[in-house]
Amino acid sequence: MNKNVVTNAVAAIATFAGWYLQQPLLFSVGLFALSGALTNWLAVHMLFEKVPLLYGSGVIPQRFEQFKSGIYQLVMTQFFSSDNIDRFLADEQKSAEPVFDFEPVIAQTDLSSAFDSLLKVVEQSSFGGMLGMFGGSAALQPLKEPFIAKLKLSLTDISQSEQFRQLVLAQLDQPEQLEGVRNKVDSIVRQRLDELTPELVKDIIQQMIRQHLGWLVVWGGVFGGIIGLIAGVLQ
Prior knowledge:
By secondary structure, this protein is mostly helical. The protein has helices at about 5-20, 25-50, 60, 65-80, 80-95, 105-110, 110-125, 130-135, 145-160, 160-170, 175-195, 200-235. It starts with a helix and ends with a helix.
């Protein structure tokens, strides 16, 4: 249900009914309600769209660069400030939970090169000649998948250990590391913001707040109707 359409329709019907039935009080209520609803609807519309001859309309698309700058400042100064990162690391030091979950990353990592390196080591060792008697490195190929599965399991266990967790925290706590993290985040944020267009910014804000701004039209009609009622009674 579109709040704007319903509110304006009800106010317009009341206005027409009051005029047609020669009911001054109903006409006053409807007219004031219609003026309040229409005014607020126009104000909401002017936030997102440029209206000819109305100065200040289309403010969100026109202030597109300021909007992007505001997002950047919010992300970098509020979420990724040095104080917040230090607080995060301090909280993690007290927590028993892992800092990061590396299991999904390890699961998707191709460790074939680790097995290939192992084969080279074996071939170049004193076992290389013996291995050649059994078909060379090809004889070990059936062990590739079990080896990789075991290696991933071992890496996951290591990444979840307390010692590894403390090492990660200690590394992140280094000033140069923190600055590197902030620089990387800064680069990602800037890149994503550069991809925004005025039209996309308008759509984002519309999706977030337009539904709630519809209540401005409703309450504009309600308060306009109350004022119209008071004005009609006083007459």
